[in-house]
Amino acid sequence: MKQLIFILFFPTLIFAQKTATVKGKITDRNNSPIENVAITYLNKGTTSDKNGVYEFSIPIRKTVTVTFSHVSFKAITKKFTARGNKTFNFSPKLKALDENLKEVIVKNRKKEAQGITKIDVKKVKNLIGANAGVENVLMTMPGVSNNNELSTQYNVRGGNFDENLVYVNGIEIYRPFLIRSGQQEGLSFINPHMIQNINFSAGGFQAKYGDRLSSVLDITYRKPQEFGAQIEMSLLGGSLTIEDSFLNNKLGAILGVRYRDNSLFVNSKQTEVNFRPQFTDIQTYLSYELSDKLKLNFLSNFSLNDYNYQPLTRRTRFGTLANPLELIVFYQGQEQDQFKTLFGAFSADYNVNENLKLTGTISSFNTQEEEYFDIAASYNLGEVDTNAGSENFGEVEFSQGIGSQINHARNDLDALINAVQIRATLKQGKNEWRAGIKYQTENIKDRINEWEIIDSLGFSVRPPHHSINEQPYEPFNGPIEPYQNVRAQNNIDIQRVSGFTQVSRKTFIDDHQVWLNLGVRAHYWNVTANSQASQSHIIFSPRAQIAIKPNWNSDVLFRLSGGWYAQPPFYKELRDYNGQIHPEVKAQQSIHVVAGNDYSFNLWNRPFKLTTEVYYKNLTDVNSYSIDNVRIRYRADNVTEAYAYGLDVRLNGEFVPGSDSWISFGYLKTEENIDNKGYIARPTDQRVKFGVLFQDYVPNLPDLKAYLNIVYNTGLPGGAPAYSDVYEFQNRLNDYKRADLGVSYVLTDVNKPVSSGFLSQFKEFTIGLELFNIFDVRNSITNTWVRDAYSKQQYGIPNFMTGRVLNVKLGMKF
Known about the structure:
The protein is mainly β. It contains 6 helices and 42 strands. The chain is globular. The chain starts with a helix and ends with a strand. The relative contact order is 0.10.
């Protein structure tokens, strides 16, 4: 029996011994598996599976040529010669076909023709800055400025913080009302880890955007396609972002959680404080494709800023080398603020057909704000001993002013803003029509109770425009009144209806490309304040754009845009310095003209682009204001006219191969004429701006990268004491100079995979150091006004911003 079995299976054993096995895994250059690679040999064939794995047999004692081919990758061949029964392990890496083709650049000029700057999302994630995010990148752009690194607010071409539009997924975003300083802000609404696209316009924007005077920042959050997680940690806080897709990729969900603590920055300032801030932000974005035509979206945000501040002492030296002065302040009391905002928006996108799209949005924004403080300050303003041989050299030897003040506030605000909006996009031949209508209601309940008492040399300083106090020469028997005393309780209801229509067309004149856009906005609003008679207003805002791409050898594009822009008043613009509401306040209006040029060229065999824009604004019915840190207080009277003009230049390209950087320059002049008293500089008159965003890496160590952010702004007007005549205080702050440096090292990413050990758990792991304010420059944002008892002069003592700070940062992706 055994002999029979041996005879039957002997040929099979002989045949098995005459073959060898070839197997392995086929991947691309990023180590991603390649499916359906065709493997051919000896007129036979097989394919790789979804994991890139393959296996086949070849005869022994014969050289076999095997070809590995794929439609998207360059084919390779390999020869195998088996001397016996063995297994060959061969795992090739295929090169994508586009790596071997001559580069073909297809440029979409639509954004450039609209005057829109598209910002790379990677810049936002990598750029170093005290407030890392989209706004940090904007600070390096021409025409955009901010002298407060703790704030995410920004001025654009002479406008203030309230003149900028911010959209996320087509929904307008608001910020808290009562915030006074940048260190209270905490976090921007925009979560940089959730962004897909960033578009920015510094002026001359289309009618589809809202009614503001300065700029538009248009953000789009992404819809996840697969699971991913990101974690960032530093001495300033941390963030967690989780995303995934469900239901056969129909539902995309992304969740972002952030925490921020600015103690590291505040402790570097000249004021000694006990500071316990807690800034928390949670955002969710959901997108569900119900069908091929209907998509549903939901965006929500919860933000909580707890700001507890207890100043202890302050010592500030200022003046000149010949006449140095020093201010010493001792504080008592504390400030406890809380800003809580909730936001939710539901939208639906319906594609009626390939030419018509409808979008409906319902949104609600609620902010609940508390501002409570009682702070007493005693100050001594004195001359510093400059005699090098004196025993008291460097110390205060003579007091010019001694006094104190008490600041008190119990301010509460609750605002609810609801909106319903419908927009339509229709493509009709070469024309694209857009139209929309929006209904919005605003209810603001505001209680203001704040006062300030100032004492100079033991005598209470009377408020302006009251009876003169001649003490100590004559006795004064009147009541002691606060220098500032604002008490008001407002209940405001505002209803708005706004809409727009515009048409865009791309055409040709001979061989020259031409883009045209014409549009108009209308805005009606009704204000009811404290149950008084309501006031109604209406404005129209026509706008136009034209851009030409000549058929020249040089890659040049010219554009011209402008129109009659208007900004209907929001609640803050209706409230004057004393907290009283003025429903009769009209919309501020501006005739705005922008002429621009984009020139793309190669330098050092690398791509560069030079963008130049000149602009002019003629403003009427201006609601003039004063700025204290980031707090804006309006006159609410429309008795001012103003103008602004300037030049913006930006050169961006690969100064270092493979890394895009830019240099920007801006010149601005803006002045206002308040009630026909003559033209003076506006609070945002930032004459010269210079910015640099630079990226570099070590050639022999490409995983070590550096990011440099440099900003130089000439000094802003320094403001004026409360209730004073601004025409008498036209001094300027010192120039703002700041440089931030970040260095990061990539331990692992898609180009540097780790297959074992701790790092194998991560898709990306980076570690970095951030050095803020490299040169430790003392920049100031506002002035504290102190009285000299002898000369009756008021000194503007600069409030300095943050010094040099070192931060450690970790970034992880799963």
